[in-house]
Amino acid sequence: MAKKGIHPEYFECKVTCGGCQREFVTGGTKESIRVDVCDQCHPFWTGKMRIVDSSGRSEKFTDWMKQAPANKAKKKVKTLKGKHN
Known about the structure:
20% strand; elongated; 3 strands; alpha+beta
């Protein structure tokens, strides 16, 4: 027999996908959940590559990669002088 009062409340949960704006209902401990991708828009299931980037991380990464050769040339090499391992 299960103990009373220790289990979370169970709701009919509304799930909203941020990628394709699809909404569906499932069971869960929260009343609503927002996800980035669902089974209808995930590249693994659809076979289509689609970038869902809401915070600009892809652009930051491409900018960083463009600057990488210049940053590598500026980097100083540290040497251990007088220390023997």
